[in-house]
Amino acid sequence: DAAFETLLVETRGAVGLVTLNRPKALNALNAALIEELGRALEAFEADEAVGAVVITGSEKAFAAGADIREMAQMSFADVYLADLGGAWARVVACRKPRIAAVSGYALGGGAELAQMCDIVIASTTAKFGQPEITLGIIPGFGGTQRLARAVGKAKAMDLILTGRMMDVEEAERCGLVSRVVAPERLLDEAIEAAEKIAGFSRVAVLAAKEAVDVAQEAGLTEGMRFERRTFQSLFATDDQSEGMAAFLEKRKPSFRNR
Ligand code: CAA
């Protein structure tokens, strides 16, 4: 897309596809890329035809982290005034489900971008890590928070304090990865999952995602209350009537997102 310098952006049916495209820097996440990714997701959010989004990189690297070349000379005042990391708010504000399709390196900010996605599909070649400590810094795009919630304290501390990489088996075992597939299946698997999601009632999909996201923040009693009220509210939708009628009539439902 001519409007983007660091991304390839397209829609495939009801799926928005973003390919990180800074191959010479292993898709290092510079300010331009983060801004463009926010813009691309806002456009998908606004596009009624899009029901889910896939974010992928190259075969060698999903993303090798924040751009070290860009950050190397920055002072505290520089990063504070630029609010380095703050621009990701636009990416996570997208309510439509995001699927990361990860091949190769997902390090530092790259691992954190995967953690910002709702589903992580990884190829057998994927490697995850938070190597920030080796650079004299710490994760700054959510790595200490989302990773600890996703994999627990013991594994998060190990990764963040030693900077080591983990292979895809370990990443799946500890709950960072949703599915592992052969490299040649990666993009198809992610797009098929996104298509499937996009075919369900959009109201139900967004409500389901919202409720699971609440589980990352709220206590169990609050979370259960939110889930129950949201579950009950879906009985106000046409799609609930349609979905249940279709089941009983042994036919495919036709959801209208109403
Ligand atoms: N930023 C900028 N450039 C990067 C980069 C990064 N994070 N990662 C790789 N590159 C560049 C390299 O500088 C190199 O460029 P040149 O050809 O111009 O020298 C090119 O991409 C290819 O990289 P390598 O030659 O290093 O490739 P490799 O196959 O030998 O090694 C790698 C691959 C192990 C991923 C290695 O590139 C690496 O360790 N990268 C840095 C990983 C890292 O530390 N990430 C954390 C960044 S900090 C962060 O993300 C902070 C945060 O949480 C907010």
From TrEMBL:
Give this protein's Gene Ontology molecular function annotations: enoyl-CoA hydratase activity
Per the UniProt record, the source organism is: Chenggangzhangella methanolivorans
The record's annotation in InterPro entries points to: ClpP/crotonase-like_dom_sf, Enoyl-CoA_hydra/iso, Enoyl-CoA_hydra_C
Mind telling me which Pfam families this protein's record contains? Answer: ECH_1 (PF00378)
Asked if the Swiss-Prot or TrEMBL record annotates the protein with the keyword Lipid metabolism, the reply is yes
Name of the protein this chain belongs to:
enoyl-CoA hydratase
Q: What taxonomic ancestry is recorded?
A: Bacteria, Pseudomonadati, Pseudomonadota, Alphaproteobacteria, Hyphomicrobiales
Q: Which family does it belong to?
A: Belongs to the enoyl-CoA hydratase/isomerase family.
Task: Report the NCBIfam families cross-referenced here.
Answer: PRK05862.1 (NF004517)
PANTHER family given in the database record: ENOYL-COA HYDRATASE, MITOCHONDRIAL, ENOYL-COA HYDRATASE-RELATED
